Each structure stands twice: as structure tokens, then as C-alpha cells.
Amino acid sequence: MKFYIATDHAGVNIKPSIIKLLENMGNEVVDLGPNNNNRVDYPDFAHKLCLKVLADEGSQGILICGTGIGMSLSANKHKGIRAALCHDAYTAIMARAHNDANVLCFGERVVGLGVAESILEGWCKTNFEGGRHAQRVEKIEL
Ligand code: RB5
Question: How far is the CA of 114 from the centre of ligand 1 (A)?
Fold first, then answer.
């Protein structure tokens, strides 16, 4: 899988470890920044990432801020983006299986690396089930 990843200043510390985890799982990762701890606005990075995911069919996104909330709120403004805020593996698995989520959001201030790893594993190993879930996903868009 090809992933784009972006954070704000409150998600930048965990990012290198997340990239490594994703690559060790066999994924390609494109880092959209930021690359330092300067304060930035999470919507700028959420929107940048969503435009990349939408333009690159089959790719997915990872957005990390302090809580993951601002990132998920911003990302879900984009038609075609289904961003899921997941702080445990079960939610990440269900976000893929039932919601066909294409952007994973979480908070660096909420989860440690161990939990983040289980979230990523759950996300990466799970495909959308389709079937009855497909018509529900279609109804999400207004
Ligand atoms: C930044 O302090 C923080 O508000 C941001 O990272 C995020 O948690 C917002 O939802």
C-alpha cells in the first residue's frame, strides 16, 4: 500500500517511528511534513494530504495531531475522503472493514508507540468487506 503521512507540530515527534513501522510492514510512505517542531495549523496539512490521496488512486493517508480530532474534522471536509479517528486496533479494523476508511487519524498525545503499532497492524491487514456496507458508505456523501 502507498501511504501519504502528515502531522502538525503535536504529531511530528512520533512520525519517524510510524513511518518505520509502515515501511517494515511493506508499505511505501510519502512524508508531506512538517519536518520540525515549529507551530503549524493542522488543517493546512490535512488538506495537503487529502488532495494527494484523492489524486493518487488506491493510496491512503495517515494524519497525526495532538488528539487526531482536528485532523479528522478537516480531512472529512473532502468529498471522497473517509477519515477515521482510531485510538485502538478494533476501531481501526472496523474503519477499514465496514467504512472503507482511506485516511487514518490518531493523536500523538493519546496513544504511545505500542498502541499506535497495533492500530497500524489492524488497519493494514484489513480490507473493506463491501456487500451491505457498500451502500451505506455510498450514502455518506451528500
Ligand atoms: C495543537 O496544540 C492541537 O490543538 C492539535 O494538534 C490537535 O490536537 C487539534 O485537534
Answer: 21
Q: Residue 25: what residue type?
A: M
What pLDDT score does 47 carry? 99
Confidence label for 76 from pLDDT (cuts 50, 70 and 90): very high
Question: Which residue has the least CA distance to atom 3 on ligand 1?
Answer: 66
For the chain, domains (ranges, CATH) are 2-140 (3.40.1400.10)
